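Team,

Forwarding the record for the chain on the shared tracking sheet. I've put the sequence and predicted structure together so nobody has to dig through attachments.
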Amino acid sequence: MIRTLLILFGLVEIVAPKPIIEACERIGLENPDHAQLRPRAALLARLEGALFVWVLVRGRDQSPLTSRLLGATGALAVVYPTPLIRFSQSFAYENSSDLELRPWVRPAARLLGALYLAVVALSGASTDESGPA
């Protein structure tokens, strides 16, 4: 059930990243109306959605590089979220230094890291359930 919801979320993020980005801005920024989003910001959101779907559908065995990338990013975000926040802001916004983060952005980034780790854990081994004959 959770796996299916994460796949659906990834698909929505691929198809329509703008509403998700706007919701994150409203939640995470003190001054979301000052945000100058770069055109490539949607690319980062779509990439995240594609990675979720890829790993969850194919399984860890069939996508080891992607699984490791998500796992490493998730672990970094859980332990030390600041680099992930800085990277995503500088990639997504023209004026990242002008944006004021709300106090819960770092804990939210840690939760995002935990979500990445959950995606990797839920991807399990290969999705082939036929097993040995």
